[in-house]
Amino acid sequence: MNLQTDWSKIRKHFNQSFKSNLHVSIASVGSDDRPTVTPIGSLFLNDNQAGFYFEMFPSKLPAHASINKNVCVLGVNSSRLFWIRSLFKGRFEQYPAVKLYGQLGEKRKATDREIARLKRRMRSTKGLKGHKYLWGQMESVREISFQQAETINLAKMTQEL
To answer: How many other β-carbons are positioned within 10 Å of the β-carbon of residue 31?
Structure first.
C-alpha cells in the first residue's frame, strides 16, 4: 500500500476501525528496548500523511518519545458484519488491518479545530457518566508523521486486494 496514493483509503480504513474498536493500537519502544502497545481512542488522520492524538492518559508513549520517536499504529476493522461477510465470501473486499509506521512529534496545545473534531467523534457518548472523565479536559495533542503503510495479508482471503 502506497502512503501517498492510498492515503484516502487509509483514512477510511482507520475511521472504520475506530467505529468497530473505539481505539487503535500504537506500539513504541523504550530505553530498555522493550516494546509496548498503547490503546489510543483519539487518533485523527489529517490530509497530509500525518495525524495527531490527544495525550492525556498515556504514560509510556510520552516517555518513549524522548528516547525513540518511532511508532507503529495498527488499525483493525473488527466489525462483525465485515468479518462474517468476508468469511462467507471467502475473501476480503477491503484489508482487515493496516499498519502505519511513523514518528512522534512534540506535545503541544490542541487547536480549536482539533478539539472540535474530538467533540464530533465523541458526541454519541456525551450523556454518559464516563464521557466527561475521559474526554472532558482534552487539551494537549501529539502529532505523528507517517512514512510507510503496510497491509495485513491473510493468504487467500486478501490475495485479490
So the answer is: 10
Q: What are the cell numbers at 58?
A: 498515556
What confidence tens digit (pLDDT) does each residue in 108-158 have? 999 999 989 988 887 777 777 776 667 667 889 999 999 999 999 999 999
CB 146 within 8 A of CB 100: yes
Q: What is the DSSP string of 102-150?
A: EEEEEEEEPPHHHHHHHHHHHGGGTTSHHHHHHHTT--EEEEEEEEEEE
pTM over 0.85, yes/no: yes
Q: Cα separation of 17 and 125, whole Å? A: 18
50-54/43-45 β-pairing = antiparallel
- Give the three-state DSSP class for 19: helix
Name 108's Cβ contacts closer than 8 Å, sequence gap at least 6: 140, 141, 142, 143
The distance of Cα 156 from the centroid of its chain, to the nearest Å, equals 26
Strands 43-45 and 35-40: unpaired
Phi then psi for residue 141, to 5 deg, are -125, 160
3-state SS assignment for residue 62: helix
